[in-house]
Design brief:
mainly alpha; TerB-like; 7 helices; about 0% strand
Length: about 130
């Protein structure tokens, strides 16, 4: 598994625990994203969570940055509510990915709105480019 994917999956796990509780729905969404979008098994994700040799990876392309942030938004919405901690974590990652501070809130609102609708990656990118 590429280091960038390991980093992304760990970031998604951080969203699962961002509000101080591990929601079964958020954990299920983590496994679904891993399996359906990246071909990673539940066991591989579980092993990854307990590893200590991962480096934080910043996606290189704008498309990857948007998709990685969107995956975080999907996890945040999995339990049907967005907490301040989850919103803050999304904002933190957006800034780490190079999103301007003045554009962060608008982007986060867009991604959370689309995550609530459960758009596919392809649909999201199409709407983002419009």
């Amino acid at each position: 598994m590429k280091e960038s994917l390991k980093s992304h999956l760990l970031n998604l796990y951080c969203m699962v625990v961002a509000d101080g509780e591990i929601s079964p729905k958020e954990k299920t969404e983590l496994y679904r994203i891993g399996r359906d979008l990246y071909g990673v098994t539940e066991d591989e994700i579980n092993k990854l969570i307990f590893t200590d040799d991962i480096v934080f990876y910043i996606p290189e392309t704008l498309e990857d940055k948007i998709l990685y942030l969107y995956d975080l938004a999907l996890i945040a919405w999995a339990d049907g509510k967005i907490t301040d901690d989850e919103r803050h974590l999304l904002s933190t990652y957006a800034k780490k990915f190079g999103v301007l501070k003045t554009e962060t809130e608008e982007l986060i609102n867009f991604l959370l709105e689309k995550a609530q609708s459960k758009l596919s990656h392809e649909e999201l990118l199409k709407e983002f480019s419009n």
